[in-house]
Write a structure and sequence with these properties.
Layout: E1 5-7, H1 10-22, E2 27-32, H2 38-50, E3 53-58, H3 78-88, E4 92-94, H4 118-121, H5 125-140, E5 144-148, H6 152-164, E6 170-174, H7 194-200, H8 202-215, H9 221-233, E7 238-247, E8 259-269, E9 272-283
The structure holds adenosine monophosphate.
């Protein structure tokens, strides 16, 4: 197991990418905010299989946090992250101090896809995400970039941005990794007390219920949303932010489930906001 090289400056990262292109090597990129877990690891391992060089970025991006959100307290654990990156076979960790200056003026406008779901309770969040992803893709110029389906709206927005701005990089979606109890892995799970962690299990439980009903032929969105809301409401300590059944490509609400569908939930457990989702393909 070799140690990944840690690069902290944009110029050094650019140079490493240039060397990689010069040597005719393909590159895979995994953007993260650190506090890495097995979900992140699965993305890095996938990138390892498909590319000559694997770059992981670790950067808590200030522009995607709103006022009163957890930017300051977001876990920063570079030492253990480096270990996980080494285990997963990353070659380079790009961990810049900052990617913005006082003079930064330009942002990526993501349009309607940034408005519903998480965009409602986190205005400006996806503008920050798209901006930092565009910056990272421009610095690293990877052949492929790996994103988790856990952040389904983010994935869709990034795919759309890469297409619209001709960023010339393949976006590779990766499946959600869960703990054995069903909770989707997240860096924010470490904020949860043992009691809150149990409460949070209502989220995957509601999604599992939805999957079971859809498999049995249920297509009525109101009915499914009502039942999922009941499962979540029954759980003390959990506060629903949204439950949605939407077209997976447009994020438009559905009355009846048809085609590619995203079932998405965001909820607060204590002060921790968690998201999770399930996808259905080609429903008829
Ligand atoms: P983050 O560090 O939370 O910004 O996440 C970095 C990348 O890892 C994003 O593409 C996430 O969607 C992905 N990711 C986070 N948690 C999971 C998970 N449980 N399963 C799969 N991918 C994940």
């Amino acid at each position: 197991m070799s140690q990944p090289k840690i690069i902290k400056s944009v110029e050094d990262m650019r140079e490493a990418s240039r060397q990689c292109v010069k040597a005719g090597q393909s590159s895979g990129f995994v953007p993260t905010m650190g506090a890495l877990h097995t979900g992140h690891k699965s993305l890095i391992e996938r990138a390892r299989k498909e590319n000559d060089v694997v770059v992981v970025s670790i950067y808590v991006n200030p522009t995607q946090f709103g006022q009163g959100e957890d930017f300051e307290k977001y876990p920063r654990t570079l030492e253990s992250d480096t270990k996980l990156c080494a285990e997963a076979g990353a070659d380079i960790i790009f961990a810049p101090e900052t990617l913005y200056s006082e003079e930064s003026r330009t942002f990526v406008e993501v349009g309607e896809l940034g408005e519903p779901l998480c965009g409602m309770s986190r205005p400006g969040h996806f503008r920050g995400v798209a901006t930092v992803v565009a910056k990272l893709l421009n610095i690293i110029r990877p052949n492929r970039a790996y994103f988790g389906r856990k952040d389904a709206q983010q994935l869709l927005i990034v795919e759309t941005m890469v297409r619209d701005l001709n960023l010339g990089c393949a976006i590779v979606p990766c499946e959600i990794v869960r703990d054995p109890d069903g909770l989707a892995m997240s860096s924010r799970n470490r904020y949860l007390s043992p009691a809150e962690r149990k409460q949070a299990l209502a989220i995957p439980k509601a999604l599992e219920y939805c999957k079971k009903k859809v498999a049995a032929g249920e297509r009525d969105a109101m009915k499914l949303l009502g039942d999922m809301a009941e499962i979540l409401d029954q759980q003390a300590g959990l506060e629903i932010d949204y439950i949605a059944l939407v077209n997976a490509h447009t994020l438009d609400d559905l009355k009846r489930l048809r085609g590619d569908v995203l079932a998405a939930i965001a909820a607060k457990v204590g002060t921790t906001r968690l998201i999770d989702n399930a996808r259905f393909e080609k429903l008829s």
